Amino acid sequence: MLDTIISLNAAINAVVWGPPMLALIIFTGVCFTVRTRFFQVINIRLWFRSTFLAIFRDRGVTKSKDKKAITQFQSLTTALAGAMGIGNIVGVATAIVSGGPGAVFWMWMSAFFGMMTSYAENVLGNRYRYQNEKKEWVGGAMVYIERGLHMKWLAGSFSVFCICGSFGMGNMAQVNSIAAAVQETMGISPWVTGIVLSVVVGIVIIGGLRRIASVTEKLIPFVSLLYMAVSLFIILLNASQIIPALQTIMESAFSIRSAGGGVMGYGIALAMRYGISRGVFSNEAGLGSSVMANSASNVKEPVQQGMWGIFEVFFDTIVVCSITALVILTTGVLDTGKTGAGLTVAAFTRNLGALGGHFVSCSIMIFAFATLLGWCYYGERGLSYLAGEKYTALYRLLFIAAIFVGCTMKLDLVWSISDTCNGLMAIPNIIALLLLSDEVVRLTGDYLARHKEGRLRV
């Protein structure tokens, strides 16, 4: 029976994360890029001023008069919490080892077009969101699938995959990485880690989205800036290798042979496959997950919320993942034979000694903890859509229990199945995005026209 499950999951996984599906995700980003006339490039000043710079300028971004909504900054950090897990550290290393340094270039390409996929998701999320009985804003891919396409069965399938993903990749896979890192660096038993994590996460999630958002708005900026600062310090120590590293990325991205001199074009295929898949895995553009957090913000303009989606992908992949990649490539550890987290640890250890290894382990733990919080809310929204708010408390208890299980068992099959569920989420979401693309284009044109006429304040 188990062998049948493994075989079936492998077959499905090969489809949902295979070349055709990855091509469809990229095509969706290309579609919105072209139809909005390269919005992420032409209007870079607009979306950068409306997001990152607005954090320091506009009080409305960090404070909300709507007591039932979270702030724009909180929606950003909650969405980033769900995305910025082990993919930014371990996923980048895996992509480089499996696809060569050229995978980084294709990761950039997936992010460039993924910005507009995320933009479209969040425009539609804000456009179709509604207030529930508690006057809280509710949105997400399942909402715009139902209200925009009137396909409740498709919205339901998205919710089912989202719930499964929340327990797998959003929970047990993350805590398993935390438990392994804690045991390796501190010698603490996974059982103890499981108990502590269950209690801490329980205290946070029992307060709902507002408490989750209040934690992520403090945690994500701190750990992100610290990780970036230490990484940039290492890169500067190896400044002479920056240009060679960038040259290696570009050359490897278009290498017509594999490293071992294999089939013509095989090197490009590997670089594209692992770069694009790890890019999507990191920023989640196309999965429709982060829309649930963004739809709960105090933003009134759909396009305004869409621009936050652009910034999320930009920061997650173009900034953070690129920094991880440069640390690995400039420190010269690629030929050590290490993979995954071990390769990243080796890169940081090369210049910082044992302290570097501890820093990477702590970063993985904090990023993974943040991912737990974000995905708990996503799974909760999925269940609420299917069965109503009355099962929210039960979901949270099950989520807490899964944390302990994830810390104390081997999770090879769980990793594989949850990875498949994440990929399956993209199918109904991509269908909705493409079928509702006219609406995204119309809302974008209307917003830009009003902005040009000076009827909008940015």
Describe the structure.
The chain is 78% helix and 1% strand. By secondary structure, it is mostly helical. The chain has a single domain, classed as Up-down Bundle (Amino acid/polyamine transporter I), CATH 1.20.1740. The chain has a two-stranded antiparallel sheet. Helix 12 packs across helix 19. The relative contact order is 0.21.
Strand order of the largest sheet: 1-2
What's the number of structural domains? 1
List the secondary-structure elements in sequence, H or E. HHHHHHHHHEEHHHHHHHHHHHHH
The backbone outline, from C-alpha atoms, is globular
CATH architecture: Up-down Bundle
Q: Biggest sheet, open or closed, and with what strands and sense?
A: 2 strands, antiparallel
Give the beta-strand count: 2
**Which residues form runs of ≥5 with pLDDT under 50?**
258-266
Topology:
Blueprint: H1 2-16, H2 19-35, H3 39-42, H4 44-50, H5 52-57, H6 59-62, H7 72-83, H8 90-99, H9 102-128, E1 130-131, E2 137-138, H10 141-149, H11 152-186, H12 190-205, H13 208-237, H14 242-253, H15 266-283, H16 291-294, H17 302-330, H18 340-352, H19 354-387, H20 392-408, H21 412-435, H22 437-452
Antiparallel strand pairs: 1-2
Helix pairs in contact: 1-21, 2-9, 2-21, 7-13, 7-17, 7-19, 8-15, 8-18, 9-10, 9-14, 9-15, 9-17, 10-11, 10-21, 11-12, 11-19, 11-20, 11-21, 12-19, 12-20, 13-17, 13-19, 17-18, 18-19, 19-20
